[in-house]
Automatic annotation (TrEMBL):
It comes from Nonomuraea jiangxiensis. GO terms for molecular function: beta-galactosidase activity; carbohydrate binding. Its EC number is 3.2.1.23. This is Beta-galactosidase. InterPro entries: B-gal_small/dom_5 (IPR004199), Bact_Beta-galactosidase (IPR050347), Beta-gal/glucu_dom_sf (IPR036156), Gal_mutarotase_sf_dom (IPR011013), Galactose-bd-like_sf (IPR008979), GH (IPR017853), GH-type_carb-bd (IPR014718), Glyco_hydro_2 (IPR006101). Keywords: Glycosidase, Hydrolase. The keyword Acetylation does not apply.
Length: 939
């Protein structure tokens, strides 16, 4: 069969539901024989049972062959890596031939060969007889094996072409990874079951279609006939309360086990409802990805994904941009996530040729698109977690959308349809956008969006709920702006929430680079690190963005009043009975437990199930800055997290810091009170600290050999800085190569160093005046005065100094434990923290600015301590900003001889301009006159 056909397949059986049947099945996963050829034109004699494959290699199934030493992965976002010329494909068409022998158990007759996913075009032979072919990489296909099975030894042969006419439908932003990457089975199950289980006002309605009878023992349902409806007292299924009932459908030849969840999705007055109540989707986009296995994701990893999502207050997932492995949806049913199940369709690369010949609008592709929709809906129709069908992603517009949508509405009227790519929403039930700015989301929330030209379509769309199927692009450091989006989603009933882009960095394990991205395999066309844009790193450790998202998505809020805290339940369905409160007090001395006598036996406070006022225990007294921390934790183990797991928290200031000295050198303390600065050869000394007399820079700080501090404006650009264009303008201006001129070093009662800091080739610059005073400790007042016409925001305003590498640990009082920037770091809280310099680094797969600790009151480096007036930003690294900026992969960063310490007044916000809006204006760092004061004291 020619891979250039528009036909989606041949010889295939009708699609049906993914089911757990007791019919016999043979697992055909395992080690297969494999041969890779560079073109599609190799003879197909390998399918003959007697063919000798001794010279072939072994390859596991499921797997992608490029991840097992055959060929190489390639990454593109929008661009097709082949000429855009449907239905044709290049002569260079990697073709994988697979063979596997299996023994048929005694007495076995009949059966279907089921492939859960083959990327992208598969021809299948059994014992030399061609069963047919299939496309639709992330969709199952079954062939009737019965007539060709024989007792004893059987030979299954599969030919997989990487490129086919169907490749034009699979242009998702991800690695191109061919192969049999999901399970293969020989099954004697033939049944299809369609359960319809809805919920309204305490009652569930159940019916089904199947050639058998249904029973649900827990509900007293026995021998229910197909097509008969029963109404029962049930508990509903929601993502927060994923109540499932075990059901069995007994058919003549097999019994099928199902887990039924009663729930109804509807839309009323432009609001998305589940079981009659509004829901807010706190979602992420999930690609299937594993750093070693690509999209052949092990079951345990899928489970971990769902658990991690639940543990981070995520309640929804969009299966971007194809139906996931069927087990993933079982996990969503069981553990509770709202799912938008998306069809395996993206034709994004046609956008680069003006959408000419887009398959979405080509009648020759209509059958293929309908086929994809049918196979998704039929496979996944029984999942209560699936609340919407999505026609696909970034596939432009065209008549085939109507073909898909019309069929889906007819087959399953119970679920709304989603598709973002058609602004008119002609074929959808919800209005969906990606990366809309806060202002635009707000306008949509107020029903004040720009109208469509067609008044009927406009009226239709205006009556729809709105969601952001992608927002807050989590590439590298960020995303910024999460809290402000959430505030809008919570404010306007029309806004049903959204899905952050995306769950995981698709970094492939690499022997040199640790994690590879586009270009690392020598791909001629690629999109670099744009595939590294997840909330978890490739090994699934949470990045700071996920911790922020957890905070923003908290289902519990706290309002502090005198002696009490009001606990507000923000779940859509669940109550707070599972939670209890842990109360602590944070100060510079650390965390203090509160008086145990006032607490319950577990040292915690009970939470009223519906929320409400909780009396706080007596709190320890003190006169220094103190913060009350209230944490809502799980009182008992839940299926998705252990007892003690923190769900939400808040802090309130109990006592402000004592008033500061007036800013001049203190005279009341310090052995060196009144001692001034002394010129001593090339140095200016103050106690056991010293400055270079020529540059005015510190060289010794209480005996520790240092260099600096000096004014710095640069940061290693974040992905958001770079892709948003700002970093390019910064480099053009030369902010990464500032020159420093010393105009005066004046010794008097204090030390004054006057400088001008500026890049070459411009008249822009900053006057920086350092005023040092000494009272046993050193106090620095820095005054910065911009000169010239600064147009763009600047990366940073702060000081840089270096320390000996022996300075390996930092203790601080301020926000922590993680990084925080003006519009990120919502997960950071006030406390006393400690970390090694190594631990202060956030290991972004593509190195960039990271690790900034915010609102630091003081930081102790062992030997000396820096204090803010009142606070400063602190970053300490075993490499310089220049080295960080030059690095392209994690292993490029090697700890050097010095620790580089950055003491900052301000940073430019992070935003999400890698895809979407930059920082909101209030988080932009404008060049302006500023003063900044710090104290340095011996530890
Ligand atoms: C959007 C895509 O839908 C998604 O797959 C991903 O590529 C994302 O961008 C960026 O990482 S499409 C974009 C043109 C807004």
């Amino acid at each position: 069969m020619d891979p250039e056909t528009f036909t989606p397949g041949s010889g295939r059986l009708e699609p049906r539901a993914a089911l757990r049947s007791d019919a016999p099945a043979l697992d055909l996963n395992g080690t297969w024989r494999f041969r890779l050829s560079p073109t599609a034109t190799v003879p197909d004699d390998f399918a003959r049972p007697e063919f000798d494959d001794a010279s072939w290699d072994d390859l596991p199934v499921p797997a992608h062959w490029p991840l097992h030493g055959h060929g190489a992965p390639a990454y593109t976002n929008v661009s097709f890596p082949i000429p855009v010329d449907p239905p044709h494909v290049p002569g260079e068409n990697p073709t994988g031939d697979y063979r596997r022998e299996f023994d048929l158990p005694e007495g076995w007759t009949g059966g279907r060969l089921r492939f859960e996913g083959v990327d992208s075009f598969a021809r299948v032979w059994l014992n030399g007889h061609e069963l047919g072919f299939s496309t639709g990489s992330r969709l199952p296909v079954e062939f009737d094996a019965g007539p060709w099975l024989r007792p004893g030894r059987n030979v299954l042969a599969v030919r997989v072409h990487q490129w086919s006419a169907a490749s034009y439908l699979e242009d998702q932003d991800m690695w191109w990874l061919p192969g049999i990457f999901r399970d293969v089975t020989l099954t004697r199950s033939t049944a299809d079951v369609f359960v319809r289980a809805s919920y309204r006002d305490g009652r569930g309605t159940l019916s089904f279609e199947a050639p058998g009878r249904m029973s649900v023992p827990e509900l007293g349902v026995a021998d229910l006939e197909p097509g008969t409806e029963v109404t029962l007292d049930v508990e509903p299924w929601t993502a927060e309360t994923p109540r499932l009932y075990d059901a069995v459908v007994t058919c003549p030849e097999e019994s099928v086990r199902l887990r039924v969840g009663f729930r109804t999705i509807s839309i009323a007055d432009g609001v998305l409802l589940a079981n009659g109540r509004p829901i807010l989707l706190k979602g992420v986009n999930r690609h299937e990805f594993h750093p070693e296995h690509g999209r052949a994701v092990p079951y345990e990893t899928m489970r971990q994904d769902v658990l991690r999502m639940k543990q981070h207050n995520i309640n929804a997932v969009r299966t971007s941009h194809y139906p996931p492995h069927p087990d993933f949806l079982d996990l969503c049913d069981e553990l509770g996530l709202w799912v938008i199940d998306e069809c395996d369709l993206e034709t994004h690369g046609f956008g680069q040729v003006g959408w000419r010949a887009n398959p979405t609008d080509d009648p020759r592709y209509a059958e293929a698109l309908l086929d994809r929709m049918r196979r998704m809906v039929e496979r996944d129709k029984n999942h209560p977690s699936v609340i919407m069908w999505s026609l696909g992603n970034e596939a432009g517009v065209g008549r085939n959308l109507a073909v898909m949508a019309d069929w889906a509405r007819e087959r399953d009227p119970s679920r709304p349809l989603h598709y973002e790519g058609d602004l008119s929403c002609a074929h959808t039930d919800v209005y969906s956008r990606m990366y809309a700015s806060h202002a635009e989301v707000e306008a949509i929330g107020r029903l004040a969006e720009d109208p469509l030209d067609d008044p009927d379509l406009d009226a239709r769309r205006r009556a729809m709920p709105f969601l952001q199927c992608e927002y807050a692009h989590a590439m590298g450091n960020g995303p910024g702006g999460l809290a402000e989006y959430q505030e809008l989603f919570e404010r306007y009933p029309r806004l049903a929430g959204g899905f952050v882009w995306e769950w995981i960095d698709h970094g492939l394990a690499h022997p040199v680079h640790e994690y590879a991205y586009g270009g690392d395999y020598g791909e001629p066309v690629h999109d670099g690190n744009f595939v590294i844009d997840g909330l978890v790193f490739p090994d699934r450790t949470p990045s700071p963005g996920l911790l922020d998202l957890k905070k923003v998505f908290e289902p519990v809020k706290f309002e502090f009043e005198s002696g009490v805290v009001r606990v507000v339940n923000c779940y859509d369905f669940a109550d707070l009975a599972e939670l209890e409160l842990v109360v602590t007090v944070e100060s510079a001395a650390g965390t203090a437990e509160v008086a145990a006598g006032t607490l319950g036996p577990a040292g915690t406070l009970a939470v009223p199930a519906g929320g409400g006022v909780v009396k706080l225990p007596d709190l320890p007294a003190g006169d220094r800055e103190r913060w009350l921390t209230v944490r809502a934790v799980l009182a008992e183990d839940q299926p998705w997290a252990k007892a003690g797991h923190e769900v939400a928290w808040a802090q309130t200031l109990l006592a402000p810091p004592p008033p500061r000295p007036d800013g001049t050198a203190a005279t009341t303390s310090g052995t060196g009170a009144g001692v001034g600065f002394v010129r001593d050869g090339g140095e200016i000394t103050a106690g056991d600290s010293a400055f270079d007399a020529g540059t005015g820079r510190l060289v010794r700080l209480f005996g520790v050999e240092v260099d600096g501090p000096r004014l710095d404006l640069w940061r290693a650009p974040t992905d958001n800085d770079s892709y948003g264009g700002l970093a390019g303008r910064w480099r053009a201006l030369g902010l990464h190569r500032l020159t420093h001129r010393v105009d005066a070093v004046e010794v008097g009662a204090g030390l004054t160093v006057r400088t001008r800091v500026a890049p070459a080739a411009t008249d822009l610059g900053m006057r920086a005046t350092y005023r040092w005073t000494f009272d046993g400790g050193l106090r620095l007042e820095l005054e910065v005065e911009p000169e010239g016409d600064w147009q763009d925001p600047i990366p940073r305003l702060g000081l840089t100094m270096s320390l000996p590498r022996e300075v390996a640990r930092v203790a601080w009082f301020g926000l922590g434990p993680g990084e925080a920037y003006p519009d990120t770091g919502l997960a950071a809280r006030v406390g006393r923290w400690s970390a090694t310099v190594a631990e202060l680094q956030t290991p972004y797969v593509f190195p960039q600015e990271n690790g900034h600790r915010a609102e630091v009151r003081w930081a102790d480096f062992g030997g000396f301590r820096v204090s803010g007036e009142p606070v400063f930003g602190m970053t300490a690294r075993p490499w310089s900003i220049e080295e960080l900026d030059a690095a392209r992969h994690r292993p490029d960063l090697v700890a050097g001889e010095r620790v580089h310490l950055h003491l900052d007044l301000a940073h430019q916000g992070i935003g999400t301009a890698a895809c979407g809006p930059g920082p909101l204006p209030r988080y932009a760092l404008r060049a302006a006159r500023a003063t900044f004061a710090l104290r340095f004291d011996p530890s």
